[in-house]
Every structure is written in structure tokens, then in C-alpha cells.
Amino acid sequence: MPTWGMHLLTAKKLRIKFPDKFKNTYNEFYFGNLLPDIPNEFVIKNISCNISHTKTHFDKEITVGNHKEKRADISGFYQKYHQKFNNPLILGYYTHLLTDSYWNNKTYNERAILDADKNIIGVNLKDGQKLICNKEEIRKIKSNDFKLYAYKIFKKHLVEEIKYTSNIEELLKEVTWLKLEKSDIIKTIEYIKEKITNPESILESQKLEYKIYSEEEMEENIENSIKFISCNLGLEENKNF
Prior knowledge:
The chain is mainly alpha-helical. The protein has one domain. It has ten helices and five strands, in the order H-H-H-H-E-E-H-H-E-E-E-H-H-H-H. The protein has helices at residues 4-17, 19-22, 26-32, 53-56, 74-81, 88-110, 135-155, 166-172, 182-197, 215-232; strands at residues 59-64, 67-72, 112-114, 120-124, 130-132. Helix 1 (4-17) runs antiparallel to helix 3, helix 3 packs across helix 6 (88-110) and helix 5 (74-81) packs antiparallel against helix 6 (88-110). It is globular, with a radius of gyration of 18 Å. It starts with a helix and ends in a 9-residue tail after the last helix. The relative contact order is 0.18. The model has no long low-confidence stretch (mean pLDDT 93).
């Protein structure tokens, strides 16, 4: 999945592209873009309500070839909650799911190597080489690419800090499937602040290099994801990208 740096950069670019839409709610919209990942404890530990990734991302099982996979039910979320998109947390939540969907499709639909039954058996690397491996290995390689790009995002201060406001707590009451406490909100905000002030902590002393995507491809796909999300939010007419 995209890193929080990528989610925040996407949210900021949407705010810049549609300033009237997010003029007074961008801080809460930023926080909403992190919401689906907070209860999973992959990033923030000791959250008051531990909820599985499957539930927070509204996964449903679909058949691909001769096997089943879990994918976020984007249309299901829209049908159920689109009337609450005036709540910037819920709009940010939906934007997060769209961002995940864009990058998963980009990686597994366009870069993956499939066998005759559409099982993933490898990935096409940025240098043109083909790496035969399982999906878990692809996920790890993709995650390293995303982590390296997140380092750049925070290092160059391409995103802004999220500020704690009581408005976040008030708006969270409508996010009825999550029960976050004030301490969870503060931990999340402090995590982002720490990454902005200490981006080196993202790499955890690892010497990473881009393997699936180049840095230029990451930047291009961020822009393309904005178009994809804008269309799904009804902010921009449908285009090919």
C-alpha cells in the first residue's frame, strides 16, 4: 500500500488543484487520508481500537483467474457513505481507498507477470528485467520503492504537518465504524511531525534503491493518481490516464 507520505502528498495536491473544495477543511481532510490505516497498528502502535486491515479497507473477495483475492470495495463504500462526503474525514477516507486502489492496480495489473491462469508469478522491474517471485515478495519490493519515495517527500518538505483540533474529534463521531480516542489522534499527528523533522527514520538505516518504479515514474504516477481520484470524486471529467 502507499505510504502515509504518499497519501499526504496526494491529499495536498488535491487541495492545491481544487482550493475551493478544501479551503476550510484541508487539515481534517489530510487526517482522513490516514484514517483507514490507523487502527491496523502497522504504523501507530497501541491504538485503543485494533481493527483489521480487511475491515478498515472494506475488502471483499473477488475471483481472479482460478484463485480469490481481497480488494477494497470502492463502489460499496461510495454507495454507503457518499452522502456524508461533506465530512472531510469521510471524504479523506474514501480518497485513501482510491489511492490504494490506483497503486495496487498500477503494480499488479500492469507490472505483474501472470501465468496462463492469471496467477501472479513475478514482476517486471524498471530496468526491463523480469523477476520471478511470489506476490508477497512483490509487495516487499513495492513497499521499499514507496518507502524511498516517502523519504524524499518528507526530506523536501512536500507535505504539511497535521494540527490537532477538537473538530477532528467531533467529525470522527460520524465515522461510526472506527472508535478512535484523543490519544490515537495525537499519536498519529506526532508520528507525521516526527517524519517531517527526521525523515531519515523512514529508511531505518536501510540502503534502498528503486526496483519496480523509478523516482520519475513515482512522480508521474502521483499526478496520474490525482486524475483518477478527481474523476471518482466528481471533480474532473473522466479522462484516459
